[in-house]
Design goal:
With 102 residues, the protein is an all-alpha fold. The protein has one domain. The protein contains five helices and no strands. The longest helix is centred in the middle third of the chain and has 27 residues. The protein is rod-shaped, with a radius of gyration of 24 Å.
Length: 102
């Protein structure tokens, strides 16, 4: 086995570490980020409507339309939590009105 000079050994070690880091963190293009975000938004919207359907039966089209109009993922997360615990679709609709108006 051959020994490398100290400088070359350090350089090789650095390059190996950098290569491993690059391989473990795949590059995501801005377009892929947008697609991922839109997919997460749509999934969260569908989750909200599904929870309401399971809990209360039919969900008014106006509620579905309002939920589908929300783009902020944090707002959708909060609405999802509310959909799990809220007492009625009417209350959820009031909550939606306050969120979409404010």
């Amino acid at each position: 086995m051959m020994s490398l000079p100290k400088e070359l050994e350090e350089q090789l070690t650095t390059e190996i570490i950098e290569t491993r880091e690059e391989e473990s963190m795949p590059f995501i293009s801005p377009m892929e980020e947008i697609i991922q975000e839109k997919a997460m938004q749509q999934a969260r919207r569908e989750d909200i409507v599904e929870v309401l359907q399971v809990r209360f039966g039919e969900v008014p089209p106006s509620v579905v339309e309002a939920v589908n109009g929300i783009k902020q993922i944090e707002t959708l997360k909060q609405l999802f939590r509310q959909a799990i615990a809220i007492a009625s679709v009417a209350e959820f609709q009031q909550l939606l009105n306050s969120v979409t108006e404010g």
